[in-house]
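To assess whether the prediction recovers the assembly geometry, we first specified each molecular entity separately, as shown.
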Amino acid sequence: MIKGMLKLALAATALLTISAVSVAQAKDTIVWWDFLGGGDGVRMKALIDEFNKEHADSVEIQATTLDWGTPFYTKVQTSTAVGQGPDIMTYHESRIPLGISTGSLSVITPDEMKASGIQASDFEPANWKKAQDDKGNQYAIPLDIHSIILYYNKTLLKNAGLLGDDGKPKGLDGVANWDAALAKLTANGVVGLSVPTADGATMWRIFYTLLNQQDGVFLNKDGKFLDGDNLDKATTAITEMNKWVKSGWTPAQTEYPASIALFTSGKAAFHINGVWEVPTMVDLQKKGQLFDWGAIQIPTLYAHPATWADSHSFAIPNRVGNLVDPAKRKLVLDTIHWFNVHSLSWAGGGHIPAYKPVRDSEDFKNLKPNSDYAGLAATAVFDPVSTLAGVASPVYDAAGNYIMPAMNGDMAPADAATQMRDDLQGQVK
Amino acid sequence: MILKNKRSEYLAAAVLMAPFIIIYGVLFVYPTIKMVQISFTDAPLIGDGKFNGIDNFVRLWKDRLFATSIWDTFYFVILSVIPSAVLGLIIALGVNRLKGWVQSVVLACFFLPYILPVSVVFRIWSWMFDKDFGIAQYPISLFTGGQHISIFRTIPLFMPAVASVTVWWLVGFNVLLFIAGLRNISTEIYEAASLDGAGRWTKFSQITWPLIWPVTVLVLTIQLILQLKIFDQVYLFANGGRTDATIVMVQYIYKQAFQSNHGGLGAAASLCLFLIIIIFSVLQFQLLRTRDSK
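The predicted structure of the complete assembly is given in tokenized form:
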């Protein structure tokens, strides 16, 4: 009797196992790693759910979110070196040079991209090339362009006569006009501009924007930092940033969350920060806790428009001894293309879609304020191509060590530029 | 028969010790040997490098930032180790005089910060000291004539501030150790001293202090080793700011090995820290022990 039961149980188990295996075989899985937290994380999760629903009987993405910055890239580096890791991962374009040097990234061939409908002409050239090495090998496909923008309080600007009929600020281009606007807006307990002045990363983004507006080169082709007259241009940029603080237009040593609070509480007319804070403003306004606001590209203070930018992109890890097989690679690239085609909802996070057809669509044009600043993509400048540059890199650290104290008046701008140059040059092997 | 028994005893001993020896070997001895080996190569973070002699150590010797990190580490140790021991003893003496549930509640209050993770400690204090909205700015502005000060972005204030936060965070553990030590002192000794007419100060200096000394040595040694390895708080509070001005040794190792992919250099710096910790903790322990035996 017991024996019979046992047989039955065994048979049932075997049957279940077989059916489970066959179901699993019918459906492909893609192991996915990203570093997207906060609002970005929520949006990406929704997109992944949409993808999984649409491909319910063919593909399933199994996503894991890891810590942003150095921990993420260390984990990618250590796991790929021993043949572990995901099939697909998010990657900052600015970080790709370091990824190539550590051998963590796998080259995506033109034939593979063509087979999945991915083509260079759908992206901004600078954005596309940032994911290549010096030989033109492609290591990643961009998803978005994210940058810094100028947030503004419409009421305060209107009172100061700085708001045009189209509801956008007017007369901000050129150093003299910009300074005059800040001076005018700084009155009655309100400051002209709030910036996370205690945050090195923001310092870097503003500095790099102002440097490139003067055609300054941070790192030249010979591997020299701030070579020749670029040092003077750097000094000019830092001096201008320091002027905002020195003149009382921008509060010194403001922490990141406090700088946002200064703007959202109406104590600052302008705010410079990343596009990723757009959802913060949108959500506050939805709750009826925010005034009429807008966001535009950073004004052109010098020769021509330019804005610092980085890009979230997708890459395939180079898992040593356990490479992603060709069939899976095809699937991964199809998936990447799907995410680009569906990147409109990703733009809800403030990001500008890297994929031009989405950016040119009517739906995106109706998405405010994103479409008001999306024009910056055409003149976006990406971080220098170097293993020392990119998010959470020595260049970012240098901005905290030199530009931050200079902006807050603890170091002379010229000294800051020189010391930053020498420090980074000293780290070149 | 006796021989056989002995052999089986050895076998049993070996079997019982094996798990520890294997784990200790794999998780401590092997990595330590490997670290020493890597410190003489130009290895990246992952994978092997070429042997380059004492290049890494020469580079460390010449690196101003490494010198800064050693100085800052010792500065932090001075600011945190003795204050946290002294404060721990004072609080323990106070708590020890309380009775019953009051004692438990007060002890819990002092111990509570100790169970918080460092990230929470960082959030609490960075918000309290926030330059624009922090509650601590009210008392600060009394001294500065209404001016707000960014404590963690003002370099001379950075280490004292982080050390104070650390003392607040970790003092509960010292209090616990001291209370255990105080409870070990027999009340009869105090009674005898009272009969002889000893005052409060005499009792403390002649009875409590000498008898609590071994616990003090333990607390100081634990704190010294812990604070030489300081990383989290300094990293979190300095993040985004002038990190190089307040860099500590473990932070330097992190920067070289993980951020800049210089595994060899990172290992060399780790070896230096390892030696510093061994030398100083042994030195301190011996020094304090000899005083004890006098």
